[in-house]
Structure prediction request, 846 residues.
Amino acid sequence: MELSQYLSMFIDESKEHLQSLNENLLSLESSPQDISIVHNIFRSAHTLKGMSATMGFEDIAALTHEMENVLDLVRNSKIEMNPFIFDCIFKSLDSLESMVEDIIQGGTGKADVSPIVVSLRSIVTGEYKTAVVPAAVTAVKEPTKGIEVDEFQFSILQQSIDSGFLVFYVEVTVNENCVLKAARAYMVFDALERMGEIVKATPSVQEIEQEKFDRSFSLYFISKVDQGTLEKEILNVSEIQSAIIITVDTESLDELSRPRTEVEAARQEIAAAVAAAVVPVQTPTIEVAAPKVEAAAAVVAKPAAGGAPVASRTIRVDIERLDALMNLFSELLIDRVRLEQLATEVKRNDLTETVEHMSRVSSDLQNIVLKLRMVPVDSVFNRFPRMIRDLAKSLDKKVDLVITGAETELDRTVIDEIGDPLVHLLRNAVDHGIESISDRLAAGKSEQGTIQLRAFHSGNHVFIEIEEDGKGIYRDKVLKTALKNGLVTAEQAAKLSDIEVYNLLFASGFSTAEKISDISGRGVGLDVVKTKIQMLGGHVQVDSRPGLGSKFSVQLPLTLSIISAMLVRLGSEKYAIPLSSIVETSAIQKKQIRNIHGNKMVDYRNSVIPLVSLSTLFSVPDFNEDLEDETEIVVVRKGDKQVALMVDEFIGQQEIVLKTLGKYLSGLFAISGATILGDGQVALIIDPNALIK
Amino acid sequence: MGEEKKVIVFALGTEEYGVEVEKVRTIERMQPMTRVPKAPEFIKGVINLRGVVIPIIDLRSRFGLDELPTTDATRIIIVSAGDFEVGLIVDSANDVIDLDTDNIDNPPEIVGGIKAKYLDGIARVGEQRLLVLLNLEQVLDRNELQQLERVED
Prediction:
């Protein structure tokens, strides 16, 4: 059987399971008595084991198996969780992660995990519990170990039980020296089919026929015959070593399928496992979207999951196909604008109406296309709790990470890139922001520091804030380093506002400071963070109250591909200004323009703001506002600063598709990209931020 | 006999030049382009090539030759070299020929005002014809572009 086509699915699923294992383990750590969490952990581990075994990654399966043994004891209240066990299991998860990583890199997922296995076994055998023999444990949970079934098969089993049939879980093992395993298996199947119906077998019937099984296979069997008869019939076949037969009742069946009725996430786990198990009768209709599963898993983490079985019907789509869809759609948008122009020229009612209708449809379509690419930030945030835990532990600090707004959605392309900068900022917060326990107590704070990680929408942007109640940033220390590195002169330094001083931390010269600790270590690689965020079209700012904590605020665009913009004309040239930075448009008389220190300024809503001549700045060949009595202006802002840009004429507001100017033209002054207009011409997009000092 | 090498031949003034066919995406007629403010002089602007925005370089201007008005023969050769995809404005382009690599000599110090580092070599074609092979990577070197920008500032 060809497994490679299921590899990407396996990787995705195992990452999800590892993530949910991590999350659940963390929440178990904060409420160790909650056995329901252990159940969740167990289920994830179990599914992971099944999946990896099916895919032939034996080492992963083996390690998960050892982990399961420990967890099983916990969930049956045979042992209690303690720091040693937590650490062991976290370590196992790390190994599992690196094995999966190895598989992603094209490796075989093999690793030497013997030290962890030894400690896991020691938990099972000696130190913690003496009475329980592992073998007995596995025997107890044999039914659930069985094989997962999909919804359809589950309902068959359920209905059979309800209508008085007997449902058996059968595990048949052939003799070690059996020559014709497949033939023996066939005989068993044959015997069973005469007595009832086989619902599902693992490995699949095809695999068994091709002798692709080790020594045993298991199956679900519906029949009217009793267990004894069944056993006799099976053992009648020669070369069969043993047949474990367990009668499945509603309860144990429920346990098997609890996910379906109780928590959506686990249903998906099973569905995923079945998908990964590649059962031939299975049609590949049960793929699930990653974020949904994770979101659901997060719900599970809270006690009293409470149900709410909202059937999430999702499919997994290759991001490249979405990109292709997006590109095609941008072509469509260009044509739409062209059609609108033609309609205004032709002035025929029915044409205008049709074009208007098409416009509405395509706006809706655009919204949908954009939403398709949206992913909750949770998919990035979910790895942080574990990271903070480990970091705090290694630094001997107490840190509480509070996440809000994890459901906020961002474009997939942004999501993929934003992880690293956030990791950096969070590490910074734990490492340099939050003080050590003794320092906190000395400062009259609680010994546990808090990091708030927030995400929220605002306008066309998503904000991600990282705020801690640590020691804050001291202006003087930052300035000292900045002066030493020649980032500012003493003269400039005196004039800078606090925020401007803090923002010096992002300057590229800052991180090269030799004695980082001088300024509490802030600034380490923050320039990299800033560059990355700016690359995504976002901004990062820092604010701080010395002694009370700091806040890093990251502003990101919702999407990178389509924006609303104001098209303006400068003589024969057209430019686009992003609507997100426009405050308003208006017109001013020549006599309103004032000259202050040789700079043109204009009164605007009770303040005086600079006037920028785009025609001069861009050396526009055929337009100069000096010749006009009345000039149109576009007021743009960056933070709390505003500037008025003088233009020839407004063309109007339009949705434009962002196109890059390519690498050859990167780093152009005040131009952030280009777009293609309805007539096929290229218009450049002005970056107002570059125009505001 | 050395290896065969297919090149696109174009003209710039009195010289004939060649670029490897693998690096040429398409050859276009002159078309309206959008000026890019604050870009180096030799960048004439950007065009929309079937949905992709591509910068256009006037090769005459790039090599410090006098610029000429557009004629019917003027062509834009869209090339890709390294990470870059750009269009080159040339006087005309109308030939594809096979070169024998044995017939390629090292470039002389200067050819019609073009520095040797922009050239890969000189190829002899038949009895009379000489072909200057362009080193696109050098012509499109970003460092040099930045130096030029600095001079302009």
User: Anything to note?
Assistant: The mean pLDDT of chain B is 84.
